[in-house]
Amino acid sequence: MNYKRALIITPHPDDEILGAGGYIKKLSESGCEVNVLTVSGHLPPLYSEEAFAITVKEASKAHALVGVAHSQYLKIPATTIGDVPINELNGKVVDAVNTFKPSLVLCPYPDRHIDHRLVFDAAMVATRPVGAGAKIRLLAAYETLSETHWNAPHIEPNFTPNWVVEITDHIDKKINALKCYESQVVDFPGARSIQAVEALAKFRGTQVGFAYGEGMQVIRMVS
Predict the structure, then answer these.
(1) Which residue segment(s) compose the domain that 29 sits in?
(2) How far is CA 29 from CA 2, 32, 175, in A?
(3) What is the β-pairing status of strands 70-77 and 104-108?
(4) What is the total count of domains within the chain?
């Protein structure tokens, strides 16, 4: 299915590349306008203003590599999303949906990171099939290495992809985009290492018969 506009909702800079960098590149090459909404960031009190500026600069380079058309930052300090009134947080994400009018939306899986869970909840409200949300043909959640796989098995929901996007021709762009996040990438065997990201993409691909893939969990699909 061809999509004219896509909205990638990401809790922090780099989550969008970790979870869907290859697919973003694939979408942009197909003529889809890809927009990224980054809800939270490396801001005080846990981080300095300089740290935030660094990650935004890194994001700009990464987004250029994969063909993102527009990047928006809500500038909510990391791990303090829960301090924002729910109606205010939901309203900001709703505004993005109303502005971009996407036919495809990707959001984070509700994993161990509290920011990921809160952004997922806000995304579910913003993408309800009413108003601009009624034009969304596909809503899916992506996985984020270092968080999604740390949920407690069978106690919390576990990420079980029911859709794998082939990114064999786009794995190099995904890796190069991830390398732009120099402040976030760690050495192997860290979960956010280049080797770990490549290994996951290889595993997801071989699960369904091709070289590299990105796993998604479909929430709603209209065809």
Answers:
(1) 5-221
(2) 11, 7, 17
(3) unpaired
(4) 1
